[in-house]
Amino acid sequence: MSALAQVPPPTTASSSTSRMSSSSKSVELTEITEVRRDPSNNTSTTHKYMKGKMLGKGGFAKVYWVQSLDTNKAYAIKIVPKANLVKSRARQKLQAEIKIHRVLKHRRIVEYKHFFEDRTNCYILLELCHNQSMNELIKRRKRLTEPEVLYYMMQLIDGTTYMHNNNVIHRDLKLGNLFLDRNMGIKIGDLGLATKLTHSNERKRTICGTPNYIAPEIIDGKGGHSFQVDIWSMGVIMYTLLVGKPPYEAKDVKSTYKRILANVYTFPDHVSISEPAKNLIRSMLQSKPELRPTLAEVQSHPFFTGPDVRIPISLPQSSTLEAPRWRINSRNEIVVDTSSKSKSSTSSRQPLREKTNDARPSSSSSKQATKPSAALDSNKENVPTGRVTRSRAKAAAAETGDKIEEKKSSKWAFKIYDDYINSKEDKKKDKNVEKRKEEATGGDADVDELTAKTAAFTLSGGGASTASSSSRRSSAGSVIDNDMFALETMHQRLSQSFSKSAPPSAEAPSPDEGATKWVTRYVDYTSKYGLGFLLNDGSAGVYFNDSTKIVLDPEGKTFQYIERKRTSGSEKRGEHVSETHTLEEYPSTLQKKVILLKHFRNYLSEQHKRSEEKESKGKTASSAVPVVEAKVSTEKGKGENLVYLKKWVRTRHAILFRLSNRSVQVVFFDHTEVLLSCEARSVTYVDKERNRKTYELGEVMGGGRPDVKKRLKYTKDILHQLITGAKR
């Protein structure tokens, strides 16, 4: 056992699956196994975590989203390769971080869970913050209003005061280390540069920090430094929140240090900042540490205590995207104004939550129906009017808030901090209830849970309608009946096949009975936009969070956009209508969605290409984010209507895709697949070795393929719950 394991309770870890990162060439784990040993009775327990996307990285560590497979709770995990700990100084630094962080227990500090290690890595399990860091907040918002700065600074003072009272100096306070929980509260994180003083008068001399936030006495290094360096960093943070950029930012680090040492900064004329705010910033950004106010003096400054000052009690999640409008209520409190029409139309622009990766199924439609397309187009004023040509689309893309550049689409970084785990995953499970559910369902307990989760799971919307009147539905009701009929037919066929009275058939399935279209790769990016998919014929599309869909043909020239529109005399939910456009020319209202379509397609195509190259060399395919792959066909799309992803739902063991051609694909997380057509007379099965074969149902039920039969039973139960939920 290494010295690192002597700080927290000694545990070890291992990986059952690994992937090679295409950028860093380092091994990326997809499942982490921790072995916790109890020295008192010489026993051990095993705990597994499924690792998701990377949340951030530093000089010698990376932070990932992980989910405990024991409790389904989500965490952040800091992974430090032991190759980076060869030098004793690096090991001591990590030991110090763990020793300091594990004893700090405060609502404004990211909670330390525990530490474990294996032969190659050290792991620090941490509390997961769901609304990213304040660095991403400023990138989206540019700058904040003064009530918001009051709200955040009070919380920062609260957490920093706790650390200083425990003789801890953070030494790296910056926007990137201030995280936002699901209640929009600050959590101070990353104590990698923190130090604990043996007494309050001790001075530290290590040169450390982040250039834009580093105090002048750290750069100078002659007299040492103490708690006042955190006060300086807080002054930089407050300035940055109000102005939109750090006060000493320059073209390079050396120039930045010169400006810090000379204390050269100004308040821009184009930004309205109150005099109390400027005065407080000036007091914190004094070159001489002894002249800076204490935290108590900062808290009692007129910026916080003035007669007209009102600090918000809370902030809405919509403030992550746009500035709140303030009003004074009857209790003389400052609150967000939601009464105006313009505000009510935009207050729903909250961060779109990604599908939870826990064991609970989630509907792709019912929960997201309240998230309008405005969330995808929060920079609408930048979109040109009229029809968009390729050159104008590029120009508009450069102006959008997300700064997505088309030329870099193949390297699009999916780095949104995980705000996609909702509060339900924090609830503890009743083991006795789970056991009874498993007994009732033959081991697939999560199937019964689909009913409550999919009560509003709509089955409306048949194949996409085109300009041809013959392909349109006269009313939404007939569409609903058709889709319901398709699922009911599948379920009925499967139920009959499982019935003892159904005789097995020796007839081999026709080659045309197997599935012709299926999802080969998908990426779940519903934390912000939606789920992207790539089909076996080369077409690609996106199921957006506002339930609209878009699909691009295999040639990459023509796309269809599908949305639900209410028509006179139609049912409440309306009917699905399709528009066909080319990438050269399309309505300006679709500009951002088309850009996203290109990014999703290029990303998934690039991942597929890399996968094929590595498979040809006998290597495991890799991916920068969780991407699921199936065996690919080179078959090209046929017919006018493109097949697209119509609905999807995630369960504990699988993800179910319902395509517009009324076929169903179930991708199990053990890398097997089941594909059913509308009639469900045969089943296409993909085994773990990626072999694809179509079977007649009687052959499967006759005992020839128990592995396929087991998955068909699971599929049947899912279909039953979806149909039941839709009819409620």
Automatic annotation (TrEMBL):
Any Gene Ontology CC annotation: nucleus
Residues covered by the POLO box domain: 518-606, 644-724
GO molecular function per UniProt: ATP binding; protein serine/threonine kinase activity
SMART domains assigned: S_TKc
EC number(s) per entry: 2.7.11.21
Start-end of Basic and acidic residues biased regions: 427-440
Transmembrane parts of this sequence: none
Region (Disordered): 1-45, 336-404, 427-447, 494-513
Domain Protein kinase residues, every copy: 49-304
UniProt catalytic activity: L-threonyl-[protein] + ATP = O-phospho-L-threonyl-[protein] + ADP + H(+)
Source superkingdom: Eukaryota
Keywords: ATP-binding, Kinase, Nucleotide-binding, Repeat, Serine/threonine-protein kinase, Transferase
Any Pfam family: POLO_box
Binding-site list for ATP: 78
Biased composition (Low complexity): 12-26, 338-348, 499-511
Assigned protein family: Belongs to the protein kinase superfamily. Ser/Thr protein kinase family. CDC5/Polo subfamily.
Protein name: Serine/threonine-protein kinase PLK
